[in-house]
Design a protein that fits this description.
The structure is a single chain. The protein has 163 residues and is mainly α. Helices cover 83% and strands 0% of the residues. The chain is globular. The relative contact order is 0.12.
């Protein structure tokens, strides 16, 4: 009973810090998407492509700015000595979550927001779709980083040649 209670408290603490780190990343992601889309549209990109690429650019901006807080706060991996390894795993999980976010944002916009929420202007439909995609990305990031990035899986040790 005591072990379960301790694990639960550690999980709640980890999730809480991850959530705060994710809020920071989400604010960067959400806030930079609008200027990126505007910049891409002004550069001659068509509206649909500008939306998709702005989601990718804003996600990558947030990913770069979120790595250190995630490592230090969310997963208590301050002094693991595995920063290079964790960075590689972090980027793999982040790229997977990027694909999920971009795909779900476009899917929600094209299949839910545009057909069913025509009473809202296009800006609101796009931002709502972006938020929906960010929600799916949040789940992919949390479980990916929790289960893979900031814990030793033994994978790299298996790749090393035996001496």
């Amino acid at each position: 009973m005591g072990i379960k209670r301790k694990i639960a408290k550690e999980d709640v603490k980890s999730f809480s810090f991850f959530f705060l780190t994710a809020l920071f990343g989400a604010a960067v992601n959400f806030g930079t998407q609008i200027p990126y889309e505007s910049w891409l549209s002004q550069g001659g990109m068509d509206e649909s492509d500008a939306y998709s690429w702005s989601i990718i650019a804003s996600y990558l901006t947030a990913t770069v700015l979120s790595f250190i807080p995630a490592k230090l706060l969310a997963f208590s991996a301050k002094e693991t000595g595995n920063t290079k390894r964790e960075t590689i795993k972090f980027l793999i999980i982040a790229l997977l979550a990027l694909v999920i976010q971009e795909g779900m944002s476009v899917f929600i916009l094209e299949n839910i927001a545009n057909p069913f929420f025509t009473e809202f202007n296009e800006f609101i439909r796009k931002k709502g779709s972006h938020l929906g995609g960010m929600g799916f990305s949040f789940l992919a990031n949390f479980f990916g980083h929790r289960l893979i990035t900031f814990r030793s899986t033994g994978f790299y040790e298996k790749l090393k040649p035996n001496k």
